[in-house]
Amino acid sequence: MHQPINEESYVRIDVHAHIGISSELQVAGSARDVVEIMDRNDIDQSIVSPIPGYEDPEGVADSRRQNDNIAAALAEFPDRLPRGLGVVEPRHGKAALDEVDRVMRDLGLSGLMFHNDFNGLSIDSPAMFAIFERLAQYEGAIAQVHTAVHSVLEAPYQLGTLAAAFPSVTIINAHPFMDTTHTRASIDLGERFPNMLFDTCVSHQHLWGLEKAVESLGEDRIMFGSDNPYFTYSADIDIVNYMNVSDEVKEKIFWKNAARVFGLKN
């Protein structure tokens, strides 16, 4: 039987949390809402980004507001929300590129988040390449990119084209283990692209997906993610907690890998 880790011996850093209002999914969470969910789930710190599906009738101006909200959240809860990712929309074309600079240079965020099912252009579109070219100019830049095997806009293989073209950018494959096919596709990407990491968000529980990912990719490339505020209680905590791996590996997944990637001291 898989034994849970001693819960008093570790912290949890969540690399997959969102702030804002998604009219598309009818989900909303302010910075305070996200922190309250963290408290209910004993999550110590979260990396936050704008929620996918926010309305942007004013184009880049709406993206700027989303990014300002993330910067404000970090300022309001510096101990709980120590790092943030911004957003730019590839459908805004060249007009989005200056916002990449503002996110990285002026707001001091760690990188960008993409959910291409919501932004309308594929992960490997020319507009995404232009954004990554600008992002890659910043040392230590991180891109969190959602993938899904059922999607024509965020298929895992499309993320591989960006990983190959921009090896200096640390890419977090977001919710990469949602089913058995997705898990196999994500592991294949990880074996080919060392600049790609993975979170546990919405992990499928069948056939030991996370254990197989650790076996194939190593214990240093998988980080805990929950998808806060889309839940009341995070099932991903239990999935990691009951993995058939050592406590040392669980600690890396729950917080040590995220602390290393985002430059956090714990």
Describe the model.
- By secondary structure, this protein is an alpha/beta fold.
- The protein is built from ten helices and nine strands.
- A nine-stranded mixed β-sheet has the order 2-1-3-4-5-6-7-8-9.
- Helix 3 (97-106) links the parallel strand 4 (83-86) and strand 5.
- Helix 3 (97-106) runs parallel beside helix 5 (126-135) and helix 7 (180-192) runs parallel beside helix 8 (209-217).
- The longest helix has 17 residues, at 60-76.
The level 1 CATH classification is Alpha Beta
Beta-strand segment tally: 9
Question: Helical proportion?
Answer: 25-40%
How many discrete domains? 1
Name given to the CATH architecture: Alpha-Beta Barrel
CA radius of gyration is 17 Å
Query: The CATH topology, please?
Result: TIM Barrel
Strand order of the largest sheet: 2-1-3-4-5-6-7-8-9
SSE string, helices as H and strands as E: EEHEHEHEHHEHEHEHEHH
- Alpha plus pi helix count: 10
CATH-assigned homologous superfamily: Metal-dependent hydrolases
Query: Which word captures the global form?
Result: globular
DSSP strand (E) fraction? 15-25%
Distance between the termini: 31 Å
Q: In terms of quaternary structure, what is this? A: single chain
Task: Return the structural class.
Answer: alpha/beta
| Nearest-integer average pLDDT | 93
Largest sheet: 9 strands, mixed
Uncertain residue segments: none
